[in-house]
């Protein structure tokens, strides 16, 4: 029998310092929530709610345990600490249509990828017979087009990466060429912007629309499209041009002189000639394309006749799961990003409790005493609130998680100081969705950096460029475009 000793130096010996620190901070916050002193003007229930809120943030930021575990723990603490009377009251966020809608969209997006429909579209729409600069613009246009069917920016990035690699070979370009760097900036930084155009374009838009609907007013699928497509396309276009300028994409080289010495390059395999095994079953692709087309049509019609957006999505998933169809299988459900779904459900639950206990009002009042909002001009208040949203965004690895934390707080301030909340919410989405300062802030940037020639300096520098461009688009939209549209609605 052993003497009880191990060969290691302790259970936490191989755990990163950040994760250990997160567990320590969590323990201190939990102790404060249970037995800590209550500051003047704060009730014990508000102290406990803030403790749970901070515990959730610490666990999500440091990730010592999976998102699913930390999210369930946070909801459980709301009930265990006596903040709410029942567990059902602590878990109200999971009853939100957003949680189920996001799950359905993830399944639909995965079905498009599983049958190879996204790859087939990309391969047939791109050509290697242009100059790198023309191909750069073509790549951007087809990323934007594919965003209508594939909500996940990560899925779009993974789809186009091998195509970019083949284009680099077709042009005979060296690794780290201007075209390759520009293409990976497109896939990482500019690509996620496309997801904001439609309410069903991805997690960022879904979270924002749900919070707007619950705190400001309902927004239909068509109204969202009218409000967001022009600003998104403008921002996407500016990002595309900036990526080409940032990386100095060549506008002269062609496939015919790709080796730089006048000799023709080896003929690349034409796009669109892949075998069925490479692009999936044509029957399944047509089926998925038809179902997705019908779903988008149902969302448009539903905006006018009052059909909730979750209904067509649920019907589409049901059809693709039927016996004899089998596009969506049990394995696809297991492979869904459950961590993000649980995180959003937990944050919505915490926000509901913060609202019902007056915690949000307390936070606004406290910060108002610290920051002289009353002395600021209207545009300065908006700038401070956008700065707050960006600060929170930098801390999170997904924009959806950052929005679900930042937007309710920002809207609470907007209500207190008379700022128009719907334009502010859309502005937060545009700025947060365009800001990537650290590689882990956006999964598409992370994979682009891992598989491409981008450096940390490229990521930070171009992230600041896209953030600045988003502010330009926000100013133009707020002053010129949105007032016209909202006055007509």
Describe the structure.
The termini are far apart. This protein has 22 helices and no strands. It has helices spanning 17-35, 44-62, 67-80, 87-90, 97-114, 117-125, 132-146, 153-171, 178-190, 203-215, 221-247, 276-279, 282-305, 310-321, 330-334, 338-356, 359-370, 378-395, 399-417, 421-434, 443-451, 456-488. Among the domains are: 14-90, no CATH class; 98-258 and 278-334, no CATH class. Residues 1-9 and 256-280 have low confidence and may be disordered. 47% of the residues are buried. It has 489 residues and is mainly α.
**Helix and strand pattern:** HHHHHHHHHHHHHHHHHHHHHH
Average pLDDT confidence is 83
Largest sheet report: none
The proportion of strand residues reads under 5%
Number of strands: 0
What percent of the residues sit in helical stretches (DSSP H or I)? 55-70%
| Cα shape | globular
Rg calc = 24 Å
Structural class: mainly alpha
Unreliable residue runs: 1-9, 256-280
Straight-line distance between termini: 77 Å
Number of DSSP helical runs: 22
